[in-house]
Amino acid sequence: MAGDSRFPDVDTDGSEKNEEAEIVVNVGGVRQVFYGDNLNQYPETRLAELINCLSGGYDSIFSLCDDYDPGKREFYFDRDPDAFKCIIDVYYFGEIHMKKGICPICFKNEMEFWKVDLKFLDDCCKTHLSEKKEELEEIARRVQLILDDLGVDASESHWKRCQKYIWKFLEKPESSYPARVIAVLSFLFILISSIVMCVGTIPDLQVVDAEGNRMEHPTLDSIETACIGWFTMEYVLRLISSPNKLHFALSFMNIVDVLAILPFYVSLTLTHLGAKLMELSNVQQAVQALRIMRIARIFKLARHSSGLQTLTYALKRSFKELGLLLMYLAVGIFVFSALGYTMEQSHPETLFKSIPQSFWWAIITMTTVGYGDIYPKTTLGKLNAAISFLCGVIAIALPIHPIINNFVRYYNKQRVLETAAKHELELMELNSAEGKAASSKSELEDLAREGKEGPFYSSRLKVSHSDTFIHLLSEEKHYRTRLQSCK
After folding, report:
1. Residue 211: helix, strand or coil by DSSP?
2. Could you tell me which of 353, 347, 349 has the C-alpha nearest to residue 381?
3. Beta carbons of 107 and 83 less than 8 angstroms apart
4. In sequence order, what DSSP letters do the residues of 323-371 get, joined into one string?
5. Which of 152, 264, 283, 468 is the most exposed place for a label (fewest CB within 10 A)?
6. In this predicted model, what pLDDT tens digit does every residue of 63-107 receive, in sequence order?
7. Mean pLDDT of 230-238
8. Would you call 209 exposed, middle or buried from its count of C-beta atoms within 10 A (0-12, 13-18, 19+)?
9. Under 8 Å CB-to-CB from 426, ≥6 apart: which residues?
10. 8 Å CB contact between 395 and 366
11. pTM for the full model?
C-alpha cells in the first residue's frame, strides 16, 4: 500500500508538533476539522491516534480508518454521523449526551469504535442505555424459552421429556390449544370457589346441625371439595414438573396457591382429630378462623391475568410515590386531629374525646369517606374539617399520575417485548429457510446433473420443502440475528 502511486508520501519528518496538527475527518459525508491540542486530551481515543499515525505509514493509517486522502489530509469513515456528532462533545465539554432517536446499543457500539470510554456518557443517558440492555436481555430470554420449548433433546430420558411437557402444559397456555383449555378451567375453578365462599355465608342457604349451629350447605361443601381437589392436583403436578423446585416453592404466586388450599386440609384435620385434643367449641372457632384464609385464592387470578400482573408491577415500581402519599396523610392526620380536638373542647357535647380518637375522624375526612359518626360542632372545628378535606384531596391526587404512568409504561413495554421476540423468531425462521432453500437448490442441481430422477428425486423434494420450520428452532445456527447484531 505504501508504494501505491495513488498516494503521495506521508510526512515523516516529525517537524510538526501534534498539538498544532490539523486533521479533517469525514464520517458518512459529514466533515469535521480537529486540532491536536483538543484530541490529545484523550490520547487513547481513535481520533487522537489519527494525529500520531501520520508518521507511521499507510499501514498504520488504514488500520484506523476506511480511506484516506493525503492531499487534503482527510480521513474517511463509514460510520453513523449523528452518533459521531454526539461523541466528539467529549473533546470540548468532557461529557457525552446521546441525542434522542439514536438506538442506545448502536450508540454504545459507536463509542467503542471511537475508543471513548463509557464513563464519559452522562448519567441520564447511561440509565437509558441500561434500560435498553435489560429489554434486549428480556427479548433474548423469551426467544430462548420459546426455542427450548420447541427443541427436543434426544439424549434426555423419557421422564425428563414428560416432565418438560407437563410443565409447558400447565405453565404456558399459549403453547397449545389443550393448554389454553386447562388455563380457562383453572380460571373458572377459582371463580367458582370464590363465589361458593361468598354464597356460603348467606343465612338462608345455610343448614343447622344437630347441635343447633349453622353450617354451610352440603352441596356447597361438595363444590368446595371439588375445587380444592383441582387446586391440589394442579399444584402437585406443577411442583413435580418444575425445573427448579426450590425457586418454585419460594415463588410468591406459589405461596399464594399453598395458602389457598392449606386451610381446607387443616380444617378437615381439626374437624376429625381436633375434638379428641381440645373442646369442640375451640375446634369450631379454629375452623372458622381458617376459613377466612380462603380469601387468598382470589389472588390466584393474578396467574391468569396479565392486567393484574401489570398492576402489581406498577405498584412495586411506585413505592416511592406511595410512601410520599402515606407520609402526607400521616402528617395531615396528626395535625388536623390535634386541631380538631383542641377546637372542639369548648363545646359541651363534643365527640372528640381524645387526640387518638380524633385520628379516626381525620382519616375518614382526609380520604373523603366521611361516615358521620364523629363530626365537629363548633365553627372553628368545621373550618378545620373543610381545610383537612381539601388537603386530603390534594395529597391523594398528587401521586396518582406517576402511578398511572408506571402502569402504562410497563404495559406498553411488555407488548413491545412480546412483538420483538416474535420478530426475532420470524427473522431466524426466514434466515434458516433461505439457507435450506440454497442447500436444497444445490442438491437438486447435483441430482439433475447426475440424471437421478424418479420417486427418489420427488421424495428429496418433499423433505427439503417440509422440514424448514422445526429444525430451524431446534438446531444451533451460525448466523447473526438482528438481536445479536444490535448487541
Report:
1. coil
2. 347
3. yes
4. HHHHHHHHHHHHHHHHHHHHHTTTSTT-S---HHHHHHHHHHHHTT---
5. 152
6. 888 888 888 888 999 998 889 989 888 888 888 888 888 888 888
7. 90
8. exposed
9. none
10. yes
11. 0.55
